[in-house]
Amino acid sequence: MIGGGAIGGILAAAAHSAGHEVSVCVRTPFERLVVDGAEVPAAIVTDPQDAPEVDWILLTTKVQDVASAAPWLRGLDNGRAPIVLVQNGVEHEESVSGLDLRGPLLPALIYVSAERVRPGQVVRRSPAAMIVPAEGPGERFPELLAEIKVSRTADFRTEAWRKMLMNLAANPITALTLRRLDVLHEPGVPELAAAVLGEAVEVARAEGTTLTQADADKLINAYNSGGDPENGTSMLYDRLAGLPTEHEHITGALVRAAARHGIPTPQNQTLLTLLRAIRPSQVH
Length: 284
Ligand SMILES: NC(=O)C1=CN([C@@H]2O[C@H](COP(=O)(O)OP(=O)(O)OC[C@H]3O[C@@H](n4cnc5c(N)ncnc54)[C@H](OP(=O)(O)O)[C@@H]3O)[C@@H](O)[C@H]2O)C=CC1
Ligand SMILES: CC(C)(CO)C(=O)C(=O)O
Prior knowledge:
By secondary structure, the protein is of the alpha/beta class.
């Protein structure tokens, strides 16, 4: 596991439960990995020179940290182990292009709400489910993890953009307001979320996906009718921790794709401008 944060912690626990030996390659050192109060007996590795020989590599950093994780990727990459890119956004392979990795790449999506509350300590606030491409290493990936439902899809691009829809409204709005998902019920916010997703569906379609306005409506209805208002988003958790947020790879990716297709996205552009204006207090 490269990254021992929220997703790295959950996947380390799931891989251990499936009977695998797990090493977690970390930036900020910690002694013990604890997920939902239970210690995960994983090896914590702090120096890429000590990278072990592995059968699978799971990259679970934020997208903006991929470049800094290059020494880990290069140290672990043996040309044989699949490299699973577990990230939000639609730039999975793009984020590692230029690193000349030899192992087969497997982009992956995860649906879960999880927070790294301090180094080595993760709290999961919802069940987890993953989606990977059906072909290549995706055929064997579900065997790697216990307790997480893994689906395989023939149309990963559509699924990645579907997940983007979920992130494009909730992540910026929670991060900008420093509020949990209950903020989506404030007056005017459902309308803002709907407008953000309306722009995004048009871009997603131009990008070759099969998403329609009905997919955006379904998501907005789900936000309006429930979900746990105590849950946050990964962008909110970064903001609360004073860390840089992933906005360039979520809202920024949408705005860049829109520009390629000449589609106006004023609501997303406004959110992006505000997200760019935030000054993180902790920068690695
Ligand atoms: N949290 C959630 O609920 C969800 C997150 N996601 C996505 O999953 C991905 C991972 O997010 P998440 O786990 O929440 O993020 P976190 O910030 O909780 O964890 C990322 C981890 O990566 C580590 N890291 C960063 N750079 C390096 C490096 N160079 N070498 C080793 N480790 C490094 C960080 O270390 P350090 O401790 O030093 O900061 C941190 O522990 C993101 O793309 C996110 O959008 C998707 C669905 C839900
Ligand atoms: C919105 C959510 C929780 C969905 O999994 C997510 O992807 C995130 O927090 O970044």
